[in-house]
TrEMBL record:
<comment type="similarity">
    <text>Belongs to the MIF family.</text>
</comment>
<dbReference type="GO" id="GO:0004167">
    <property type="term" value="F:dopachrome isomerase activity"/>
</dbReference>
<dbReference type="InterPro" id="IPR014347">
    <property type="entry name" value="Tautomerase/MIF_sf"/>
</dbReference>
<dbReference type="InterPro" id="IPR001398">
    <property type="entry name" value="Macrophage_inhib_fac"/>
</dbReference>
<keyword id="KW-0413">Isomerase</keyword>
<dbReference type="Pfam" id="PF01187">
    <property type="entry name" value="MIF"/>
</dbReference>
<dbReference type="GO" id="GO:0050178">
    <property type="term" value="F:phenylpyruvate tautomerase activity"/>
</dbReference>
<keyword id="KW-0964">Secreted</keyword>
<protein>
    <recommendedName>
        <fullName>L-dopachrome isomerase</fullName>
        <ecNumber>5.3.2.1</ecNumber>
        <ecNumber>5.3.3.12</ecNumber>
    </recommendedName>
</protein>
<keyword id="KW-0202">Cytokine</keyword>
<dbReference type="GO" id="GO:0005615">
    <property type="term" value="C:extracellular space"/>
</dbReference>
<dbReference type="GO" id="GO:0005125">
    <property type="term" value="F:cytokine activity"/>
</dbReference>
Length: 115
């Protein structure tokens, strides 16, 4: 159930969004060690955003998971997602924050219940 929410002030077209969704799904699943079928990625482009006082390309992400997160995994995820954003949207890694949430099963709903 890892879920990655990405917000950026860069407008994204359908092709770029699709590439980000595919690349991020594979990366999150591999790094956290969960099946791709459990991973959800959301891309929100064209969001009004300022970083360090400018509106130059920037992004913010939140990754939520039931387990699988920790210092080394989070560092790898941060680096990998930053690389995807650099490649697909030309967002410098110094203009990207990501926050990690390791949640309990009972705090995440699915299929009309909780995990």
């Amino acid at each position: 159930m890892p879920t990655l929410n990405l917000y950026t002030n860069v407008p994204v077209d359908a092709v770029t969004t699709s590439d980000i969704l595919k690349d991020a799904t594979k990366a999150v699943a591999k790094i956290i060690g969960k099946p791709e079928s459990y991973v959800m990625i959301l891309v929100n482009g064209g969001v009004p955003m300022a970083f360090a006082g400018t509106e130059a390309p920037a992004a913010y992400g939140e990754l939520i998971s039931i387990g699988g997160l920790g210092p080394s995994v989070n560092a790898k995820l941060s680096s990998t997602v930053a690389d995807i954003l650099q490649t697909k949207l030309s967002i410098d890694s110094s203009r990207f924050y990501i926050k990690f949430y390791d949640v309990q099963r009972s705090f995440f709903g699915f299929n009309g219940s909780t995990f």
